[in-house]
Amino acid sequence: MEHNNNGTDLTAGLISSAVAVVLFGSNFVPVKKFDTGDGNITVVPIVKTIGLGLGLLIWGSFNSLTGWASSRFGWFGMDPEDISRPLLNYIGAGLSVISAVIFLFIKSEIPSSTSSLDTTPLLTERAINCTQTNGLDYLWTKNLSQLQNRILGCVLAVTSGILYGCSFVPIIYIKDHGKRNDSIYAGSSQYDLDYVFAHFSGIFVTSTLYFLAYCMIMKNNPKVYPQAILPGFFSGVLWAIASCCWLIANHSLSAVVSFPIITAGPGIIAAMWGIFVFKEIKGIKNYLLITLAFCIILAGALATAFSKVEMNNQQMAAVINQTPLI
Is residue 139 part of a domain? Predict the structure, then answer.
């Protein structure tokens, strides 16, 4: 029975991870052809100081490593995750970071037939047209030296990555302390998806506060684009479904396994959109880099997935021979 539960959790976790990867890599497709204004709270200054490519690399890597390490070593009051094969898990986490480095060297081309609003490559579209800083004035960054700009951009990118990587810490913390009778969280649900409403509500409240602060900074003249509202809604729905799948993967595989997989995979999906639909990525060099990144991500995903699986010799032989266990 234990083996069957283990196999069921592994299957559910891998399917959930795959869905999350596809949707996280596709959720900006609905808003691609629309001007979305000023972008996120930290993205614009990061782009202005160190560029989008380096910014994505830094915060993506710190996102992956923070989420993985906090679960693996029990940071922030969480219980450390037990791993059957620690070496495989370390290799998987390392490969996910290496794949992020490869994406830094993939160059996108803007097709000449596209309109002015469709000029941001999807592979770097997580910032949502953040190069168009119509509203906020970031000329103050020009008053900083090159070294100061680089330090500022790197600090903001590292901070963003760490915060992304900590986004599930409250859920895991409550789950871990829910197993203890002397905790105020005693008896709390052990199913991650039960916390999705609280998780999304926190995001909604925080985003609302950011928007109100932005409106005040803009002196009640925010840059709002009506054409982007409906596509933005669908983009948010894709993101929400992906996040739910991530929570399921956390439950089935644990965050120490799901984080390296789900933070590395969306880049491949975005690259596929860029190659086959938007024709933004061309050339043998780019294709070879994407193929290499795919192989590294696949190897990392398999390493992290099987680092959690514990099999005895009889179970391993049954898997190899594809014979049922008795």
Answer: yes
